Amino acid sequence: MVGSSMNDCLFCKIAGGTIPANIIYQDDHVVAFDDINPQAPHHKIIIPRKHIPTLNDVQAEDETLVGHMAHTASILARQLNIAEPGYRLVMNCNAGAGQTVFHIHFHLLGGRRMSWPPG
Ligand code: 5GP
Ligand code: ZN
């Protein structure tokens, strides 16, 4: 597990600029960057600036923010030319689903054929 609180959270540090990442998009609410261990030709991570540990912690007040994360992913997919062939948007929730960084994030994966069901 990497970072279970705001003060010790890898993605808060990337959003704050204290840990480097190849940031491809940012605004007042979200940051998107290359995954350090890509699982596809395109593998981007989209995070909110707000520290929310898991999808289970999302509150009603966060709905617009999570929607903005998803919309940002679709805009990035278009820019990466993966919108038409297709891409996958994934959020792992808790360790049993493979979550290792406890600050919510979408994985945007594309540039290769995706199989289903996932592992
Ligand atoms: P999770 O397993 O929590 O769904 O996804 C965490 C993702 O963060 C993984 O795909 C992992 O490769 C990525 N990651 C872990 N540490 C770093 C880092 O320091 N920099 C970047 N850019 N990505 C990271
Ligand atoms: Zn955080």
TrEMBL record:
It holds the Pfam family DcpS_C. InterPro entries: Histidine_triad_CS, Histidine_triad_HIT, HIT-like, HIT-like_sf. The active site is at 105 (tele-amp-histidine intermediate). Residues 10-119 form the HIT domain. It comes from the Bacteria. PROSITE patterns: HIT_1, HIT_2. GO terms for molecular function: catalytic activity. A motif (Histidine triad motif) lies at residues 103-107. This is HIT-like protein. It comes from Aquicella siphonis.
